[in-house]
Design goal:
Blueprint lengths: L3 E4 L5 H14 L8 H9 L3 E7 L5 E12 L2 E11 L8 H15 L14 H9 L15
Antiparallel strand pairs: 1-2, 2-3, 3-4
């Protein structure tokens, strides 16, 4: 499969429809973002919404790269990587991640962080193959 990756520059009905299809494949509990939420993401200077297209131009995956400056430098964080079930194993996730890594470097980030559930075995194999290494840390979550 030929995959192209681009940064979503505008919220469109096509994006809304793609996320309606992709979001349930990423999370059972999170609702798909609508036009208002996608507008907020696309217009945020910290977010880069990457989309992968197949050779027919259809959206087959997405990744959000968040870039932000802190006192110790530019940070890059990958979130919500999702590849359509029919396109998995065809290089879509790799193309999205490589694009994100390059974009982070262009913005001065020296490292890129992400988390992945252990049950996502294929994704974890991909991340290791791309050079990501487990980072020993405690992850805390506050849900107020």
């Amino acid at each position: 499969m030929t995959v192209t990756v681009e940064i979503a520059e505008q919220p469109t009905q096509e994006l809304v429809e793609a996320f309606a299809r992709l979001t349930p494949q990423l999370s059972r509990s999170a609702p798909a973002p609508g036009l208002a939420e996608l507008t907020e993401i696309v217009e945020s200077p910290a977010c880069h919404l990457l989309i992968a297209r197949d050779e027919d131009g259809g959206i087959v995956g997405s990744l959000t790269l968040v870039l932000f400056r802190i006192p110790t430098g530019m940070r890059a964080w990958i979130e919500d990587v999702v590849v359509d079930g029919e396109a998995r194993g065809k290089g879509v996730g790799e193309a999205l991640n490589r694009f994100a890594i390059d974009l982070a470097a262009e913005h001065g980030a020296r490292s890129v962080d992400l988390t992945s559930r252990p049950s996502r075995e294929a994704a974890n194999r991909l991340y290791r193959r791309l050079g990501f290494e487990p980072h020993e840390t405690n992850v805390y979550r506050y849900q107020g």
